[in-house]
Amino acid sequence: MSESASALPASASSLLPGAFRIPKEIECWGHRGASAHLPENTLASFRAAILEGADGIESDVHATSDGVVLMFHDPTLDRTTTGTGTIKTQPWEGVIEHARTKKEPVQPIPLFAELVALLMEPANLHVVLNLDCKMQNDPERLFPEMARIVATYPDWETTLAPRLILGLWHPLFIRSALRHLPLLTRYHIGFSLSIARTFFWDACSGFSIAFPVLMSSAGQTFLQECREAGKEICVWTVNDPGEMRIAMGWGVQAILTDRVGVLTGLKKEIVAHPELLPLSGIKGSLFGWSSWRYYSLAHTWMQRTQLDVLRTMCYQPGPLKLPDLADEVRERPALKT
């Protein structure tokens, strides 16, 4: 095995896609970094997550009006920073670059280029980056700039691309992903299993699904279908130790959490003492009924909400349609999905 291949996480170098993972093989991905105790989506948060043992980072991308790609969750600056207004209507230079986090320690908003540079540091060549591509952005503005940044690194096809995952909410992003970032893995993010099956099953090699949805019988059926088809499953956002245990019992690829230290510590404990994995006693028996989020009525509401959001909040509002990918597939017959 080459040095670059050996630096990749287990899911990228040895395990078959969709394989059931025992706890020591399940990855911890820091949701917006170590966001439980540091400002979310900042370099400080990303670095802390890695130091706490995260195998991957989950973060979000937006493009400014002057074409700069930055790491930020909301479409507006107001909730977490001193800035105001919509990201895509304001320039980075002279405006957004001056915004700082409200939460301490005060941090600037990081650029995509800065996060990639962090991943390419010698100590971090094992770290995966799961990119939540926010639907308010036109992918034809977002993806070409991301592709340009990725391609600035020597041997990026082998040292960087295998560690980058494009998380897609909306089917309008599939064609642009194929065109501009064909070597990057594609996952669908969501909490609607019907949308996942209808619009993303053929175009994506994995799914990042909200934890409560997988608690249902329909969720467990979807999990089994993915396993049989060789498709990966990740779950978000899992901060409760009980939910962490349940997710590890499902044998998923990765668990996304704000509490990286809690998950990595629990994982080490269970690897050393496998008998601690199952929830025992009354808590184990009643866990499936312990939260309204696990109920089918809540899942129906979640799925309707996702459909409404995709129809109305995307950069191009309207009904969902399957993209015509014939030209992209013909041009790139060996694309990685």
Class inferred from helices and paired strands: alpha/beta
Architecture, CATH level 2? Alpha-Beta Barrel
Output the CATH topology. Answer: TIM Barrel
SS summary, helix count: 15
Instruction: Give the strand content.
Output: 5-15%
Rg, rounded, reads 19 Å
- How many separate domains make up the residues? 1
**Unreliable segments (pLDDT under 50, ≥5 consecutive)?**
1-13, 333-337
Distance between the termini: 23 Å
For the sheet with most strands, the description reads: 8 strands, parallel, barrel
Could you characterize the architecture of this molecule?
The N terminus and C terminus are likely disordered. The protein has a single domain, classed as Alpha-Beta Barrel (TIM Barrel). Helix 5 packs parallel to helix 7. It is 38% helix and 14% strand. The protein is built from 15 helices and 9 strands. Strands 1-2-4-5-6-7-8-9 form an 8-stranded parallel β-barrel, surrounded by 7 helices. With 337 residues, the chain is an alpha/beta fold. Pfam families: GDPD. This is Glycerophosphodiester phosphodiesterase. It comes from Dioszegia hungarica. GO terms for molecular function: phosphoric diester hydrolase activity.
